Amino acid sequence: MDCRDKKILFIINKHSGVGYQATVEGLILNACKENRADCTIEYTQRRGHAISLANNASKNGFDYVVAVGGDGTINEVAQGLLHSSTPMGILPRGSGNGLARHLGVPVKLSEAIRSLFSNKIVRIDTLTVNGKLSLNVSGIGFDGHIANLFADRKIRGLFGYVRLVLKELFNFQEFEAEISFNEMTSTQKAFIIGIANSSQYGNNIKIAPLASVCDGLLNITVLKKVPLYNLKFIYGFLRGSLKKSDMCDMLNATAVRIKTSTPVPYHVDGEPCGLSNSYTIQLNAASLPILVPPTFLT
Question: Strands 88-92 and 137-141, how do they pair?
Answer without folding.
Answer: unpaired
